[in-house]
Amino acid sequence: METVDIDGIDIAYERFGSGPPMLLLTGLGGVGRAWGGLIERFALDHTTVVPDHRGTGSSAKPRSGYTIEALANDMSGLVRQLGIGPAHVVGSSTGGAIAQVMAIDHPDTVASVSLVSSWAGPDPYFLNQFEVRKSILLSQGVPAYTRASSLFLFAPSFATKHPEVVESWLAKAMSGSSDPEIMARRIDMIMAHDQRDRLSRIAVPTIVIVGDEDICTPPFASRELAASISGARLEVLRGGHLIYLEQPDQFFDEVARFIGEI
């Protein structure tokens, strides 16, 4: 991996392929490789940049500075330093929150946004869910937290039919070194994210994608997102929060078709 210094924070990234630029932003785990085989598929037609968020993977792990606004600045700075902007930004969950702020505060770096399994701002269900998950993290440790989180991330029907996929995801999620304190601050970061009053400022083409069995950020959160962004298109696929892992072919086709129509 390569790194760039963004305002004193080293952001690690990988770059694949050639063509129009694309930035893939993963969810709360923050490690870019979580996109799996989709990276190579997007790289067939795009210069595909896959970063690790601050606090995760090979990027810097400061003790403070965990806000969605700070991460949006990191990722916009990466696009500028690589000279690839504006880029098509595809953000899943936390990555979608980052993409929202990039499009509002750093519009020169964004050509389009694909907001996947994301949300505009917290509601009581969202806050309760993440308070419980954070409590498990801090009281029982990373393995218990990761296993508990999987209950929110995979559709129940998918987890029942494909337990081997869930176990493989768990093994990968638990394999890296994780700092519970930083993980907890990243949870606080997403609970504080609220762009409801600013989403109307997004002026680039937008698609909102969600799984119909998403337990983490249910479809009503994506309907709110799409309704708040002028011209946004909403696509509901069959699956859970990690829709890009459960339905990679359909997910890829939706994003590729959307970008191809711009």
What features would you describe in this structure?
The chain has 262 residues and is α/β, with parallel strands linked by helices. The chain has one domain (2-120, 195-260): 3-Layer(aba) Sandwich (Rossmann fold), CATH 3.40.50. The chain has eleven helices and eight strands. The protein has helices spanning 38-43, 68-82, 94-105, 124-140, 142-153, 156-161, 163-175, 180-192, 219-228, 243-246, 248-260; strands at 2-6, 9-16, 21-25, 47-51, 87-92, 110-116, 206-211, 233-237. An eight-stranded mixed β-sheet has the order 1-2-4-3-5-6-7-8, sandwiched between helices. The mean pLDDT is 96.
Descriptive tags:
262 residues; eight-stranded mixed beta sheet; 11 helices
The number of helical elements comes to: 11
Describe the largest sheet: 8 strands, mixed
Rg of Cα set: 17 Å
Strand arrangement within the widest β-sheet reads 1-2-4-3-5-6-7-8
Tell me the CATH architecture.
3-Layer(aba) Sandwich
> Beta fraction of the residues?
15-25%
Overall SS class: alpha/beta
- Overall domain count: 1
**Strand element count:** 8
Q: What string gives the helices and strands in order?
A: EEEHEHEHEHHHHHEHEHH
Estimate the helix proportion, in percent: 40-55%
In short:
This protein has 262 residues and is α/β, with parallel strands linked by helices. Helices cover 46% and strands 18% of the residues. Helix 2 (68-82) packs across helix 3, helix 4 runs antiparallel to helix 5 (142-153) and helix 4 packs antiparallel against helix 8.
